[in-house]
Amino acid sequence: MTDGPPGRLRAAGLRVTRRRIAIIDALGNLGGHRTADEVATSLDAVGDRVPRASLYHALGSLAAAGVVMVADAGPGAARYELASTWHHHLVCRSCGDIIDVPCIRGSRPCLDAGIPGATIDEAQVIFRGTCAACVAHPRAAHPAG
Length: 145
What we know:
alpha+beta
């Protein structure tokens, strides 16, 4: 497949830079769906301070190239995750967890809008409800992420 972050960047046609590798590594180490602030905190913790504007620019470039995905969970801070296959998300109303939901087709746009003459390249579905952990243990608190 690829040889880690440098291979992912090359496969996406992006220049391999230390900053991009650090951001990909941070997202991989954090796992889940992370805000730019969480990525910045992770980078700061290893002594790799990145100005916010540079971080947002890099995340935008990585998302546009398909190296990371924007995990659309509705209002609030944008969340990012390492891209693998196209999928949707369940946002738990109880604990706030964001859970990956496989796309039926496995690729974009996944749904047909049925609008004559329109070209649809992406459809994001946000499922809202209660995750399995909250259904099983309604009073138990567990971390969102």
